[in-house]
Design brief:
The protein has two domains: 84 residues, 434 Repressor (Amino-terminal Domain) (Orthogonal Bundle), CATH 1.10.260; 53 residues. The protein is built from seven helices and no strands. It is elongated, with a radius of gyration of 24 Å.
């Protein structure tokens, strides 16, 4: 496995998501990193650019070359401060996001179940309407 891919995996882990979920956040097709990790192959440079753009707190030098710190230095301008999360806040944020993802997954299961119930009730209603129509025609 390439060291760049190992570092991408570290970023995904630090962001509290699977490699597949990480792929989705940068617009990569499912399996782009997973296959590269499994096969020890390289990835296209456009995905590295996407990571650097989407995750600006990570050092591009660290991502590409493995040199320096994983995270960029603390912000020095007011604009930087507005976009920076301390590691403590970032950990809390990742935990909240993870919890919200679980809630969304649970709600999606509920929605699918309710869709099935609705379809079943619609079929039943349609059947009753046909029976009523037949009774009226007699």
């Amino acid at each position: 496995m390439s060291s760049v891919l190992k570092r991408i995996k570290l970023v995904a882990d630090r962001e509290g998501m699977s490699v597949s979920a990480f792929e989705a956040t940068i617009g990569a097709s499912k399996g782009v990193f997973t296959r590269a990790l499994a096969n020890g192959t390289d990835i296209q440079s456009k995905w590295l650019v996407s990571i650097v753009e989407k995750y600006p707190l990570y050092s591009s030098e660290w991502l590409l070359k493995g040199e320096g710190d994983m995270l960029k230095a603390l912000p020095v301008t007011k604009e930087d401060e507005e976009t920076y999360l301390s590691p403590e806040l970032e950990g809390i944020t990742n935990a909240v996001i993870s919890s919200l993802k679980q809630v969304v997954a649970s709600q999606n299961i509920t929605i699918k179940s309710q869709e099935k119930t609705i379809m079943s009730l619609e079929r039943l209603l349609s059947s009753f309407e046909r029976e009523v129509a037949l009774l009226k025609n007699k």
